[in-house]
Write a structure and sequence with these properties.
six-stranded mixed beta sheet; alpha+beta; Alpha-Beta Plaits
Length: about 450
Amino acid sequence: MIDQAQGLAHEATELLQLLIRNRCVNDGTPQSGHEERSAALLQTYLEGSGLELQTWEPAPGRRSLVARLPGRDRAAPSLTLMGHTDVVPAAPDAWRHDPFGGELIDGEVWGRGAIDMLDLTATMAVGMRRLALSGFRPSGTLTYLAVADEEGMSQFGASWLAEHVPEAVGCDYVITESGGFPMATPDGQTRLPVVVAEKGVNWCLLTVRGTPGHGSQPFRTDNALVRAAEVVRRIDRFHPPAEIHDVWRRFVEGIGLPPELAGPLLDPDRVLDFCEQLPMLGLARLAQASTHTTMAPTMMSAGTKINVIPDLVKLQVDVRTLPGWDAAQVRAMLQEAIGDLGDHVEIEIPICERASSSPTDTPLWDALQRVTDRHYPGARNVPFVTAGATDARFARALGAVAYGFGLHSRSISFEDYSAMFHGLDERVDVDSLALSTKLWMELARDFLG
């Protein structure tokens, strides 16, 4: 067993290193990503294993790969393991090691995507290949998806596949990112979050207007950039009322927090003030995002020349909504936050996707619990909501139950885990790669055996 575990870890480590080095950086533009590099790598890796392979490329370079083990029984449930191959940009000078070097240092693989989510994309591929080579034939079809463009709203990846080839990617159950990091409760127990819900995405474009003038005479000018700065300040300080939803309640109750923590985290009248004072920054950010619709000003463009007072500013705001919110409510919230500056600000919402969730009273939930208990005896899986978007929403739109999960060692603390998503010094330990690879293989045999 030791040799098998070491072999899985070695294989997953090498594949992850190659995926990181492929630099499939998605900056949100159609010409970025270059996911064909990793799709080709994975196709080569999986060829000859007995898997049925298929690719789609809706735009140059934006290639996705599907690998399939057909089921024996058409009536049996089908399962898809879905990973993405693109990553967000990284600033090398801010990292301790090359973000695209894929270096193995002290038992950890470093690089952009190591946690989000090339680790799972790699281990899913290794698990699928090992299952196919072993002669495993599932009752229901087992599919592996390595999709493009997850970091750019998936218009060339899961969204395109769901719209254009639903018969090829549709299934009953899906697992994608993230979850599965062990959390210790105050009484010494272990809880493993499973992502069963995610907030909605509303990407908003605000146009702030003023009057042009000469930069040498700024006094009493109608400077759109100065006005936009005040708009940003107001948005940053605005918080809509807290809402306590079922998944958040079940998560807080499930991880066994003491009453002095659980009480305010489940009280809509106290949760925001409590988060302001909470010394555990990761938990504070999680709690605030899980109980509020949030707004984050993220990008701004203004001006035509240094000596011209700008008359127009484009401001982008990332709004993440709780269940039940729609575009009209988002617009009303922005207008309330902007207040009396609203006459000078135009609001567009070009991307509007509502929150989604999946139930937990399912055979897949039960199978996940059985499998994880082998690696963390006595641990319990708890439902979790993610503030970020994943490709699970497209699977849910096709009627699937979709969860976010993996399996990580205790080497990754909750604070480190959350900070590395789109952050600095992203890395994953080799033990976690071995655990996730075993998870996929054991889950397939348990759920589809």
